[in-house]
Amino acid sequence: MNYWRLQWIAYCTIVRKEVRRFTRIWVQTITPPAVNALLYMLIFGGLIGSRIREVDGFAYMDFLIPGIIMMGIITSSYGNVVSSFFGTKLQKHIEELLVSPVSNTTILAGYITGGVARGAAVGMIVSLVAMFFTDLRPVHPVTTIFIAVLTSIMFSLGGLINAVYAQTFDECSIVPNFVLAPLTYLGGIFYSISMLPPLAQKLSLFNPVLYMINGFRYGILGISDIPLWQSFAVIMVFIVILGTIAMTLLNRGVGIKP
Amino acid sequence: MTALEIQNLVKVYDKDTYALRGIDLTVAEGDFFALLGPNGAGKSTAIGIISSLVNKTSGSVKVFGHDLDTDVVATKASIGLVPQEFNFNGFEPIINTITNVAGYNGIPFSVAKKRAEHYLKRLDLWDKRNAAGRELSGGMKRRLMIARALVHEPKMLILDEPTAGVDIEIRRSMWDYLSEINSQNGTTIILTTHYLEEAEALCRNVAIIDHGQIIENGAVTKLLSQAMQETFVLNLYSDLTEAPSIKPFTTRLRDDANQLEVDVPKGESVTSMIDALKNRGIQVGSIRTKSNRLEAFFLRLIGKNDGAAP
């Protein structure tokens, strides 16, 4: 059989399996981010936000919404790949892939696409929820989609690396709880970094999530604390670094082959 | 054509835990081959390396002429693996387990569905096609793994303890099915097993591995001819007070006074043993082998090899 056709069919199979997995357990995978987003919008955007003056010329609710959508995309993409790949390892059905003529690139691409698919599903659901609170429409829709997809790819890669090293479920939740959550909350979802003291502004620039949220906010509102090219550059650099690490781990069989 | 060619295969876990100490093995196309050995001998490691689940330390593996290092896609496409432990997604409907693996092997979904139906029906699992894997019984899980290994119709099927934990009826039906795909499809079959009766009944060739080394390799008939003796259990019509002396046979009385164990040395016939007993006025009601000959040979070899390797 033609090598590329084999890899394409295998890729489609992994993606189908991944999409089937997160849609089968939609109560665990799709609903919680939507409920979280709804609560953030009600409490921070509606109740507290109504007492806050405009941020960068936008009502606080409107300023908040891009960050809330992006937070759902980030956590869902990461969570999908880390839980799916770790579950595959734990139940040993990773061996179905290892004994088959699927290349590691195809395995990586399949799982990353699964993560992006869940990120996209959650992003769309949260956007639908947001429509009850605002009549905003993306100013730069193509930029919005590009930033969302690239960010989703980046965090899916992070999830896969986490899953490769994880030995227990606890180790799957350490990075999301103690690294991802602080970076996301301090990444400008709720505020513009121009509101911070100068030192905090400078420290914030070391937070990669800041570039993603601002890039996405630029796509929807047309405003950003960060130049758009810097957002793209940071995301691309991280994708290349994480992608290289993930491929190296798969090629060496770290965590999956004795 | 050679189905499997292994040369100087070494696997070292950690720094100095040798699982394989440079094994050489050749299996001909169409063979039904058994890899025997005690627990921890290196059987599963060898199978793991052949099927790409374990990284080798050194040596070479060729499957139907395809080198595992340089032609990994063709090598993997030639192999179907039934591992020792259940390793499918217990939450997935079993038909999806089969179609997924078909997809990983480049089989389009429409074809995969037909093949899944064929193999699930053949292995009596079609009625359970929408059940999750974890809901199946132990025997069904084993059969699911066989169906999964066959869905891409490999030229070589490797089974690691395929009948462990299944009842006699299912074991026999699995034997029949494996014999059928070997004889009708020409599929080369390599199995490891603890049931030496299984190896003797199914396999034409056998290798015995112990402490990471092949200590015996050849045709089952040839190995059996090397067995020094065979032990029989005789049910007698009357009780004995002591074991009779009937040279060159060795006799032992069992706990039941009407049961006698007799070792028949190589070259001696069972008929002459029964005649010798009859001459002593001992009538034999029935006779059965205490253990199969391969088992006796295997135990002798393993015993001889104990402590041979560091």
What are the SSEs and their pairings?
The complex is a heterodimer of chains A (258) and B (310).
Chain A: H1 3-24, H2 26-29, H3 31-48, H4 60-90, H5 94-98, H6 104-130, H7 141-165, H8 169-185, H9 198-204, H10 208-221, H11 228-252
Chain B: E1 2-13, E2 17-28, E3 32-36, H1 43-50, E4 58-63, E5 66-67, H2 72-77, E6 79-82, H3 94-104, H4 109-122, H5 138-150, E7 156-160, H6 168-184, E8 188-192, H7 196-202, E9 205-210, E10 213-219, H8 220-226, E11 229-236, E12 250-253, E13 259-265, H9 270-279, E14 284-289, H10 293-305
Parallel strand pairs in B: 3-8, 3-9, 6-7, 7-8
Antiparallel strand pairs in B: 1-2, 1-4, 4-5, 9-10, 11-13, 11-14, 12-13
Helix pairs in contact in B: 3-4, 3-5, 4-5
Can you give a write-up of this model?
The complex is a heterodimer of chains A (258) and B (310). The two termini of chain A are 30 Å apart. Chain A is mostly helical. Chain A contains 11 helices and no strands. The longest helix of chain A is centred in the first third of the chain and has 31 residues, at 60-90. Chain A has one domain. With 310 residues, chain B is of the alpha/beta class. Chain B has a 6-stranded mixed β-sheet with strand order 6-7-8-3-9-10, sandwiched between helices. In chain B, strands 2-1-4-5 form a 4-stranded antiparallel β-sheet. The relative contact order of chain B is 0.13. The interface between A and B is medium-sized, with 29 and 36 residues.
